[in-house]
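User: I'm curious whether this sequence folds into something compact or stays loose and floppy. Could you predict its structure so I can see for myself?
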Amino acid sequence: MARSHSANPLQSEISSLHQRSFISGDLEMYKEGQRLWVKDKNPSIETIFGFVEPYRDPFGTKAEFEGIVGLVNKDETKTLTSLVQQADKFVGRLPWVKNTGNGNGAFEKESFGLPDFTSLHSLAYCSSIIFPGVNLPNYNEIRQSDGCKNIMITNSMFTKGNQGYKAVVIHEALGHGTGKFLKKDRLGNFNFDATAPPISPVTNKPIDSWYGPDETWTGIFGAIATSVDECRAECIGAYLMSDMELLALFGYTEHSPITGQDLEYNMYLQLGVAGLRALENYNLEANKWGQAHSRGHFAIFRCLLAAGDFMTVEHSLAEGLIVSIDRYKIKTHGRAAIEALLLKLHIYRCTADFKSCSPFYEELTRPEGQFLDWRLTMRAQGLPREVFVQPNTYKKDGCIYLKEYDNSVRGVIRSWAERMDELNRSAEIAT
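Assistant: Here's the prediction. I'll summarize afterward.
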């Protein structure tokens, strides 16, 4: 049915490969569909479909289904494209690239490339989590050879404000897309000079680990892989939110009503709030995090709390938890703490250094003492989960109509029930 509505032969072939993969279980067929999907640039209707996320898979591979259909907003996409077109400039300012004196250095691709970056207004989003943005495919071999797509689910971001939207943009565009995996292939060839290995900026010694033939990031890092990468991408977003030239691309300057410095300050406050809210997703009985992003937020939160008298949390029975930031210490304390954490996670990831990353990250993300007291407060005063109620479109007398529903659990159920009824009727007509 989807193939009959394809805008071009490429989209039709993508749908065919995905369908055949779902019927046969052939993962390579699905990957080939993903390679073609990356090449489908600037579609008017964007789709994401398949078992693309590793979040709830015990093996950390692919078990989380995600299905999205949405309309591309051309005007918003122009702004995002302007960021991507200057991506190499901003990547050159990241900690492992700046001052290398040798291109992008050993731990970054020579050219960031120009991935597709789209602002999407979703019509239907089927997943256990409504993400504000996605960077796909989730196969590093495809990212390295074919590229990726960055997609902002813009109409899921309306409640997050200016700072939240910009941080997610940078997180998706420059966070997940950066980095170079140092590796040895089956023929014994290295993609770096193995006779004089690059110096790690973390240890100031030559690196002594890399990826072997057929080894992957998720395979080596296992259960912590997704959270470490989300934390790394979040750190890149936070680090570059202090770049006033980048924020000026979105209209935030020292002369705008909301200045770039205002956005930067608010971002650090939000990092503190996100770290506290993350504690709600920590299962104390199982000593386990329930969500990869939350674990990453907590890691950043702990680093900022440890950065001197920069971030503080006031805990009172009357007002709950209040996060405060010393605005005058953002550069010297806040950004420095983000940079130190980011550099470690990035180098560990690039060099397959699980033996160093695992104990560091496990210790950093283990809530103890006052954090458990704060967790109780968050759970007692926690906000109800957001309800994303999705509209339906239907065709009547040659016109397309949009039907919206009440912002309630009942509205969610009614929306999906009527969507499935319409799909079943369409399928009966087609047959």
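Summary: The first helix runs from residue 9 to 24. The longest strand covers residues 116-126.
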